[in-house]
User: Fold this.
Amino acid sequence: MNDVLISTDFQIPQNPPPIYIIGAGSIIEEAHLPAYRKANWKVNGIFDLNEEKSLRLKELFQIPKSYNLLETMVAEAPEQAVFDIAVPASQIASILNQLPNHSNVMIQKPLGETLQEAKDILRIVKEKDIRASVNFQMKFIPSLIAAKRMIDEGLIGELHDIEIRMNIYHPWEIWEFLFGIPRMEMLYHSIHYMDIIKYFLGMPKKVYAKTVQHPKQMQLSSTRSIIIFDYQMPIRAFVNTNHGHDFGLKNQDSFVKFEGTKGAIKATLGKNINFPTGEPDHFEYYLQDAEPQKWITAAVPGHWYPDAFIASMADLMCAIENPHAIHDTNIIKAYETMQLVEAAYISNDFGGTEIPN
Assistant:
């Protein structure tokens, strides 16, 4: 077993519907619009409460129309359109209430700021018969697609260990709305990693978590977390994040490591290092059944930005075309991820075990 086929393919829609964007923030500019341009999908309109921002992206990405009223966009969008919503989580329910019944919607994560908000959003989606996805796109980063294929093929044996480590410096000032909110790091960042672990291992039985502030980032409710997934079997899975490592790039880490009974995979996610410029991705694996037994570095085509965003939108578009298609971004699976986040905050608030006398 010397040659391993590294596959990052995913299903692409045959007839992609037009996209209408609600929100013109940095994630739309840096990821969504470059993704749709690379996929050659039509973006017909963009709306933001700050018309200057939507006009700027209209010109930058040659979008046919910028709207100053959401109701005008909704009225002009064709029935099969996809509304791509990228607003603060607290505004999602209000936006959904303004969309037509039977709409197709991609919601930028998280699905609300609390589990109760997620329940309210889910109720609106069901009442309005909206086909909804939530943009947990990190599990579709090309190197993680490659890892999933290798694991599903049994190349590393039985998966029993996932370690996700982020020891980085994150410029939180890019997202001003994160300052002052009661939940931050686990809800807006580590939620991705919880979603990844769930994607590979399913829902755990319990979650243990602690999230804390950084002395130099006290304006934010938390920027460092440790989250442990308990599957009540010989599986170890955890997330370890520190966004305050402001000591140069040399010892910054951003990786997902998988270990199985017959091998291991390590995917370095370079975008998080020196964000938003990023560093190169790196993919390597070790197979005990292969000769020679050593770590092999493999080239993986594509990047987190924009390729994972193509994959997440393609997942929704394929579900629109075929209701029986696998729909990994569907809102029900996203709600499960919100359950994990809620459990993590409950664990954090409940506290640890006191040291016995």
Observations:
- The longest helix spans residues 331-350.
